[in-house]
From TrEMBL:
<keyword id="KW-0514">Muscle protein</keyword>
<feature type="domain" description="EF-hand">
    <location>
        <begin position="7"/>
        <end position="42"/>
    </location>
</feature>
<keyword id="KW-0518">Myosin</keyword>
<comment type="subunit">
    <text>Myosin is a hexamer of 2 heavy chains and 4 light chains.</text>
</comment>
<keyword id="KW-0505">Motor protein</keyword>
<dbReference type="InterPro" id="IPR050230">
    <property type="entry name" value="CALM/Myosin/TropC-like"/>
</dbReference>
<protein>
    <recommendedName>
        <fullName>Myosin light chain alkali</fullName>
    </recommendedName>
</protein>
<dbReference type="InterPro" id="IPR002048">
    <property type="entry name" value="EF_hand_dom"/>
</dbReference>
<dbReference type="GO" id="GO:0005509">
    <property type="term" value="F:calcium ion binding"/>
</dbReference>
<keyword id="KW-0677">Repeat</keyword>
<dbReference type="GO" id="GO:0005859">
    <property type="term" value="C:muscle myosin complex"/>
</dbReference>
<dbReference type="InterPro" id="IPR011992">
    <property type="entry name" value="EF-hand-dom_pair"/>
</dbReference>
Amino acid sequence: MADLSSKDVERAEFAFSIYDEDGTNVIDAVNLGNVLRALNLNPTNATIEKLGGTKKKGEKKMKLDEFLPIFSQCKKDKEQGCYEDFLECLKLYDKQENGMMLGAELSHTLLSLGERLTDAECEEVLKDCMDTEDDDGFIPYAPFLKKMMVLL
């Protein structure tokens, strides 16, 4: 790939190999988003589908040589956010500037902004990533964001 450095190709091959179940340099397209996220990219679900990802296992297979141009394209995509971008957004809810925000505001944000989550998806994300609220309903948002970015 002309657009990818040899280090990028090596990283991409390694991430791809993690999802290569039988060692044939082929992954199930349902894992496309997982491989891209393992490479510190954050494409939306819609972008993943547009690039050939599927919602169900077994619908489509993808070879490494098909994946590398997708990885290259995603690296150039400026619409995806990174940890620092999301942290800056959550700071808007940090009224006391102490790294805390209301858990209810976090829930509202997940349900109403960007690629909206369903109530069930929101509950699952909060259960998996959110620390326990303090007596006033506040949570530290940086640890939440770190846990969520790992899950993505």
